[in-house]
Amino acid sequence: MRVAVIDSGGANIGSVRYALDRLGVASILTSDANVIGESERVILPGVGAAAIAMARLHELGLIDTLRSLTQPVLGICLGMQLLFESSEEGEVQTLGLLPGRVTKLPEAPGVRIPHMGWNQLVLRRESPLLGGIASGDSCYFVHSYAAPVTADCIASSAHGVPFAALVQRGNIAGAQFHPERSGATGARLLQNFVCGEIA
After folding, report:
1. Per residue in 87-98, pLDDT tens?
2. What is the pTM of this model?
């Protein structure tokens, strides 16, 4: 099993690869379209701003590559947000692999933005990614923008309003939280992604 971790410039790349190492899963950090295309699993990590991340992917010449992948793909944090059609953050067109627009979490009394810390999942439909994961399990989030709860949402969370915490459509999946920082629940998600039948 070869897992390609896309060198998107995000600060969470090292911790994602370390989390895979703990599971006994070898990964390769790459921005080579051929290596990505030939890998059995692809992870798109990301931390930062959507417009900057999309500019990086354009610079690397990876937009068409990502849009054409047929193997399982997992976007993490900003990487998940890039899977959607557009983002309010920087008013940027993103990869368009999932329908929907990423918007800023609304501010409200007692609701701090960014959303930072542990929060519970609410499972919404069955998916191989959710094996061994239950409603009420907690994951670690750091974000100010979020994707809507749509038919592709397999687990949601809430910070003032509900938002998509885990999404999947066919071979395309995403986690808004950081599985590499989410203890046993995050490790189980990564294990399910790497070893399960996703698409």
Report:
1. 999 999 999 999
2. 0.96
